Each structure stands twice: as C-alpha cells, then as structure tokens.
Amino acid sequence: MRNVVEILDELQTRAGKDPDLRKQLLGTRLKSDPVSAFCRTCRGMGYELYEMELIASGEEFHAAMKRSTNGGGENSPMLTAEDDFYELFFSSLESLDGAKTEDTEKN
Known about the structure:
Oligomer: single chain
Radius of gyration: 16 Å
Mean pLDDT: 78
Number of strands: 0
C-alpha cells in the first residue's frame, strides 16, 4: 500500500502531464468540503486516500523531522502550512498552471 506522500507525488506527476486531470483536481477546491471531494476523486481513480490520512500525514512527517534534529530537542515554531501536504500539493498544481500559461504567452 502506498503512503500519502507517494500518492500525492504520483498524482502531481500525472496532473503535470494531463491538463484535464489537473483541472479535475483543482475543481475539488471549489466544493463545499474540498478535502473530502479531493479524496473521493482520488479514490475514484484507484488511490486509497482518506481525509484523516491526508491531514495526519503532514503533521506526522513534520513531527518526525523535528524529533530527528538536535537530538529531538527541536522546538522551533512551525511555519504556516509547513505540515499541510494538501495545501502544498495544490500550491504545486497551481504553479504548474501558471508556468504553462506564462510559457504559452512567451511563444
């Protein structure tokens, strides 16, 4: 079974090559419950991704990183959305759209 990071990486790669998929994934952000809509869309494509896994994975990853530094005594403040894989994923997708738009305008 793939973990959340692997799923998001694969989706990001696929969405980078497929504008229709990117549009579909970005469209989930417009729903009344965007995280659930995103996870449902992912499950519909064969990716076992659930809301709590998505939310918890970023927090767990960040906590493990903090524990691994300075002998586990790291207490620096977390940056906004630093542990939010969902927001980081969509930020990346949105930047792909921006980059493609800019590339198109230059040609």
